């Protein structure tokens, strides 16, 4: 009995030590570095040990790396991943194109709805090459990729461009881009297109309105919290023209159904049942066209990482990532 007590005490001490070590190495409060990739400069953060399997987080339309919640990033790192988050081109601290968008956004939206395609200064495939270039610069040969919304579209292209490098895909609140899928809520489209603001205060109010509209009807948002989130993003970087260019890249994208049909990467598709921007059938459609993929629907989840859905999202994502760990050194903390 005494030996058992000693053993339990040692196990407890070891677990505590491992937890402390993981917490120390997995802090999201790390420096933001820059890497030059030809004409594009990307700002990124790397959290965790360089020797751990890499997990790249690819953010959606207009989102900055800070929009990946720190506590989620740290949880992923504590499971034994090197978590890399970055600003896509045209947002945050990454490089911006100098010129304003030459296309009329309302006109391009109309062309998109008519199935005529839009014109854009760059494509989602170009943005996928940015992501792979970042991996090259960091010396990462193979990577797990988790993309949200537009980031999920970019992740699809990454897996198509370099299937030997992408070990797994996790696609959250994203789409195949196929014609005939349910359209976004009209109010949301108007808010996305409303990018001109006469003052800082108006810009913050517009962003808070957009965040509220992207949220779940099951959750009552605190307006001050939304304003604080809008203020944080504004003060780090404010580039509405860049968001328009990213939106044009989405609108110019043809259906990715053929691309999805040829993917053979282990894939998890996660979608919310209350998504107003990409209604739930978008996620169902993505999963239906990736052979062997798994689909998880989260009741009430909309198109934002809201606190109420943090644990359901982690509960959906972590088992998939665990299953794809090739070295089987899964750390349970």
TrEMBL record:
One of its GO terms (biological process) is glycerolipid catabolic process. Residues 53-303 form the AB hydrolase-1 domain. InterPro entries: AB_hydrolase (IPR050471), AB_hydrolase_1 (IPR000073), AB_hydrolase_fold (IPR029058). Pfam families: Abhydrolase_1. One of its GO terms (molecular function) is triacylglycerol lipase activity. Residues 1-22 form the signal peptide. Keywords: Hydrolase, Signal. PANTHER family: AB HYDROLASE-1 DOMAIN-CONTAINING PROTEIN, HYDROLASE, ALPHA/BETA FOLD FAMILY PROTEIN. This is Alpha/beta fold hydrolase. The lineage of its organism: Bacteria, Pseudomonadati, Pseudomonadota, Gammaproteobacteria, Pseudomonadales.
């Amino acid at each position: 009995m005494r030996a058992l007590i000693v053993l339990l005490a040692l196990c407890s001490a070891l677990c505590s030590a491992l937890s402390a070590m993981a917490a120390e190495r997995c802090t999201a409060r790390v420096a933001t570095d820059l890497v030059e990739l030809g004409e594009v400069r990307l700002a990124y953060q790397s959290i965790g040990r360089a020797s751990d399997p890499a997990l790249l987080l690819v953010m959606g339309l207009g989102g900055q790396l800070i929009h990946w919640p720190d506590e989620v990033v740290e949880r992923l790192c504590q499971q034994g991943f090197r978590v890399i988050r970055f600003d896509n081109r045209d947002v945050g601290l990454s490089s911006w194109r100098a010129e304003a968008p030459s296309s009329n956004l309302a006109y391009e939206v109309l062309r998109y709805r008519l199935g005529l395609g839009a014109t854009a200064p760059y494509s989602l495939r170009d943005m996928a090459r940015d992501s792979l270039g970042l991996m090259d610069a960091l010396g990462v040969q193979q990577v797990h990729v988790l993309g949200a919304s537009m980031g999920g579209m970019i992740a699809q292209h990454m897996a198509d461009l370099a299937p030997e490098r992408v070990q797994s895909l996790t696609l959250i609140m994203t789409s195949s881009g196929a014609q005939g899928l349910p359209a976004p809520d009209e109010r949301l489209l108007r808010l996305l297109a409303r990018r001109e603001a006469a003052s800082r205060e108006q810009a913050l109010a517009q962003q808070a309105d957009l965040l509220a509209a992207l949220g779940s009807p099951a959750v009552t948002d605190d307006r001050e919290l939304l304003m604080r989130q809008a203020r944080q993003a504004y003060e780090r970087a404010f580039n509405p023209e860049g968001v328009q260019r990213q939106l044009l890249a989405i609108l110019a994208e043809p259906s990715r159904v053929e691309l999805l049909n040829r993917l053979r990467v282990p894939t998890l598709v996660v979608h919310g049942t209350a998504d107003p921007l990409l209604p739930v059938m978008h996620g169902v459609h993505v999963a239906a066209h990736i052979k062997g993929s798994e689909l998880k629907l989260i009741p009430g989840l909309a198109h934002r990482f809201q606190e109420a859905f943090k644990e359901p999202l982690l509960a959906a994502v972590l088992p998939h990532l665990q299953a794809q760990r090739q070295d089987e050194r899964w750390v349970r903390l």
